[in-house]
TrEMBL record:
NCBIfam families: IS66_ISAeme5_TnpA. This is Transposase. It comes from the Bacteria.
Length: 115
């Protein structure tokens, strides 16, 4: 059974957690947020520090927008092309089928020369 004291403590904690979440999403400085919401800056700072001690200190993942450009690819046959690649010390040998894409072969050779 919760005592009156623990109920008050939970209510205070929830009150300040809500303000901390609102401040984080507001984009305001702590000082500006407290002034606009008539909160004590010192008390706000106390609860913010107290709540941050409970939060895991593992790095949070960050997501960045990614723009994807479509590329027109050469029309290829519906089947797979067979490539045989033999790597030796500073040399390589590539065997391809007759209908293998010339541009794909050039990209493969360029890549292998860089390795």
């Amino acid at each position: 059974m919760k005592t009156e004291h623990s109920k008050n403590r939970s209510a205070k904690q929830e009150y300040w957690q809500e303000h901390i979440r609102s401040w984080e999403s507001s984009g305001l400085t702590q000082s500006s947020y407290c002034r606009e919401n008539m909160l004590s800056l010192a008390t706000f700072g106390y609860w913010r520090r107290k709540s941050s001690l409970k939060v895991s200190h593992e790095p949070q993942p960050r997501f960045f927008p990614l723009a994807v450009q479509s590329q027109v690819q050469e029309k290829q046959s519906s089947g797979f092309n067979t490539v045989r690649l033999v790597l030796q010390e500073r040399r390589f040998m590539i065997e391809v089928e007759e209908n293998f894409s010339a541009s794909t072969l050039r990209r493969l050779i360029t890549t292998l020369e860089q390795v």
